[in-house]
Amino acid sequence: MxxxxxxxxxxxxxxxxxxxxxxxxxxAFLLPHLTPEMDLLDLGCGPCSIxxxxxxxxxxxxxxxxDLDPRxxxxxTVVTGDVTNLPFPDASFDALFASALLQHVADPLAVxxxxxxxxxxxxxxxxxDADWDGELVYPxxxxxxxxxxxxxxxxxGTSPFVGKQLRHLLTEAGFVNAxxxxxVIHHGTAEETASFGSFTAALFRYPAVVSRVVxxxxxxxxxxxxxxxxxxxxxxxxxxxxxxxxxxxLAWAPAFRxx
Length: 259
Ligand SMILES: C[S@@+](CC[C@H](N)C(=O)[O-])C[C@H]1O[C@@H](n2cnc3c(N)ncnc32)[C@H](O)[C@@H]1O
Prior knowledge:
The protein is of the alpha/beta class.
């Protein structure tokens, strides 16, 4: 099975909360740096639920969202395209943003180098992404631990540990004065754990995932079903809890570029 196709399919299984993310929930660290009349680019905009809030902050400046599989939104120019090869001229934007994008790409630095190319001198960039290191999951058992190993294999070729590197990668890409911080997202109510459990359970039933895992010989379809049932049961456990780091970084394009 083509891994890129599997990743794209798996990204299309969007978590319900993807569409409920807002600029306030996901871009609060960037909003104070946005001013009216900036031209803004949202890389990997997906459902554009965050983009619309960013657009309000820069209006009457323009807002563009780019994604392999974008959804349209009022007031936003939505472009279907690859963030590793942006279809924009050099120095096109005053503000750039990426949420939950870099963990899904093989080469986050290549994306940030493209972002640097299309950034105007002095442009601000805000990047936010998860880092799977340090994830807390309770309770756990042998089936759930095994499912985590399978999930890690499915993420090979992407960047699930990019969060901690954001400040470094922005600097490598040519941005300056990078500053990073982190917050923790958690699922610790009956509704939240049921949603997290059922989303994770669905992963192990997803046809493209089952087909890839079985053909790679990582485990059997029966064991995948057992993992799926274990995550559904986890979601119903009144003591279940999961927490994960989300890292945020801000940086700026240099005011002057050396040729
Ligand atoms: C987890 S979603 C995040 C969407 C949105 N930014 C948010 O935080 O709700 C990741 C998005 O990145 C997009 N994506 C992944 N790789 C991409 C690439 N190489 N070029 C453009 N978009 C990409 C996916 O299509 C998907 O919409």
